[in-house]
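Summary for the steering committee. One of the milestones for this cycle was to obtain a three-dimensional model of the protein with magnesium ion bound, which we needed before selecting residues for the alanine scan. The sequence and ligand used are listed below.
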Amino acid sequence: MFVTAIIAAGGRGERLGAGQPKQLLLVGGRAILERSVAAFLTHPNVDEVIVALPPDVAAAPPSYLRQTTRPLRVVAGGARRQDSVALAFQAVHAATDVVVIHDAARPFASADLIARTIAAAAQCGAALAALPARDTVKRASRADVGSEGEQGGSEGVDRGYYVRETLPRELIFLAQTPQAFRREILRSALALGGEATDEAALVERAGHRVQLVEGEATNIKITGPDDLTVAEAIAAAEAPGAVAQPSSRPARTGRAGTGYDLHRLVPGRPLVIGGVTVESDRGALGHSDADVVCHAITDAILGAACLGDIGRHFPDSDPRWKGASSLDLLGRAAALVAEEGLLVGNVDVTVILERPRIRDAVDAMRAAVAAALGIDVARVSIKGKTNEGVDALGRGEAIAAHAVALLRAR
Ligand code: MG
């Protein structure tokens, strides 16, 4: 199944001030739009992402929309939200089976919610995330507008609204996004046109059943200053080291990855380990500088992010990487991972080398690796071991390294 995500970010929403579209404001140090897009870019069930932006932003998109490891396209949005979605829909991949639409102003949709909404749409044709109403729901009338209360002015509810009836709460749901649709169903609904505040309303009007998927209280829509305050609290609760509150969803766990590398040792080559050239009568044979520590860590962090391995990103068949500094490749790998919204929490490496002993060079290696990763040296551990004379490693024919990395959400 091919799934295309459309992120509706075409509105300007400048009510929040700062003279820029609200989706570009920061929450927890990260743009609202970046968070919303990352939830889909990193989602295992999403194959491509299309972001509808205000035309001036689409003309010069922020860097987190330009350097991505998965297909992402930017389109200029229209006057209304539904116009933006329709424009983005024209750009979906020919193979698309399901389109999942999400408001950029909802930066906290969980991967689980996205997966459940896509699965429900694949099965039933149309689905939307919605929260059951918790409060008692009143239908109101305005004293000066006869029996219907739907011409609400700008005065606010405390001027002229009266309760008309109490609605059965069990049947009231508050619509969120994501909303997902089989492609043909969305196509026919968009073709109908008409005013609508979400795509599900168009699909309902086209006569399709729309399944409800249980939404999340933390999946808030940021529209006013109060929402920003709540959003900062949600972001803080999700941040690494935060104490999970019973009322909030659990902080995201880290992601672990492992890496392993081995190179033959031959005379006439330098022995580069963790970016440090170690005095030795033999060096590691390889296309690059054959630094097993950097290669093992590169694989560990790429693995933790499910981004493949060093050979995929820096193939030894590519002349660009001949004689390359493996510290440089490690830094590039860290940047790839950062684009997925992940940071390196810590790495731990075991180097297996019969001789020489690396103990005295370990601190210099840790400093070099930490600098390449852009993290504190206290988060990098490197340990040396011999193979007790056993096997090729024990005979000094090769050097090997094992690495474990833990990544955390930004
Ligand atoms: Mg290697």
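Key point for the committee: Confidence is low (pLDDT under 50) at residues 146-150, 243-252.
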